[in-house]
Amino acid sequence: MSALLERLASAEPAIWLETAPPRGIAVDSLLKRLEAAADSIDAINLVDNALGRVKMSGLVFAAMLKARTGIAIALNFSCRDRNRFALKSDLLGAAALGIDGVVALRGDKLADDAAMGAKQVHDLDPFSLLQMIADLNRGDTGEGRKLLKTLPRLVPGVVGNPNRKALDRELELLDRKAAAGARFVVTQPVFAPEAAHRFLRHAQRAGLHVVLGVLPIKRPSMAQYLKRQIDDLREAHHHFDRYEGLSEEAARRASIEQNIALMRALAGEVAGFNIMSGGGPSLAIELALEWRRHRRSAGPARGE
């Protein structure tokens, strides 16, 4: 079993930190912050031009992270931007660099003002990308040739949305992703335990480790942005109203407290928590540290 899967199968929920590569080429500040948090997180979930906003190559930044911190990395691969040759080439690169996991996803739609004339590719979908990962893990390039050297196995993962109103459709897709070879699922952020229970039970029956999305809110304006702009969170909109009228400091404190309560309520049901940065890692790191402090004084996680 890979170290990534072994940690997800352990009694204590793993802590993942979701972050994005920098927008430009200045990397040192972000690397220093992530390096300082290395003892408090188990893996980094590195996104791939999320929301259609161009950042440094995730593969390049993952190599820097791996060399600098040694933290396990789950690297997102979006089918939106690359054809099958480019995806396969980058998967080979990820394996050579010792990247631990790959999250296969369709990719966010490009906003009109962000696309700058770009066209969405979608040569593969997440299911065919999962098949490509499985082939490469067997040493099969798909071109009638075997790899000369056995690759380190890339652990395949996918994304899911427990907040979706048409949840039956989401669970059907989850079953298909598990059948295609996914081993774990990283979810959209959840803001109340009851929103997650059915999704969690179904994913576990499908044999998937669930890394549940947790999103700390930095300020009231961030809550309103999520409410207005992120369609995937439509069913969670009422949770953002609790930040209205708060100062930034009060919003941060309230968010930490609410997320700790949420994580405690679901710790016995999940393989891990994916703490999302939402534009910067400082509050996500603060939540990870607070959770570690909380768990030191708490009882057993799973089956508690």
Question: If you had to describe this structure to a student in words, what would you say it looks like?
Answer:
The chain has 304 residues and is an alpha/beta fold. It has a single domain, classed as TIM Barrel (Alpha-Beta Barrel). It has eleven helices and eight strands. It has helices at 3-8, 28-36, 58-69, 84-97, 112-115, 126-137, 167-179, 197-205, 220-229, 248-266, 282-296, and strands at residues 14-19, 43-46, 72-78, 101-105, 155-160, 184-189, 209-214, 272-276. An eight-stranded parallel beta barrel has the order 1-2-3-4-5-6-7-8, surrounded by six helices. The chain is globular, with a radius of gyration of 19 Å. It starts with a helix and ends in an 8-residue tail after the last helix. The mean pLDDT is 90.
Helix and strand topology:
Layout: H1 3-8, E1 14-19, H2 28-36, E2 43-46, H3 58-69, E3 72-78, H4 84-97, E4 101-105, H5 112-115, H6 126-137, E5 155-160, H7 167-179, E6 184-189, H8 197-205, E7 209-214, H9 220-229, H10 248-266, E8 272-276, H11 282-296
Parallel strand pairs: 1-2, 1-8, 2-3, 3-4, 4-5, 5-6, 6-7, 7-8
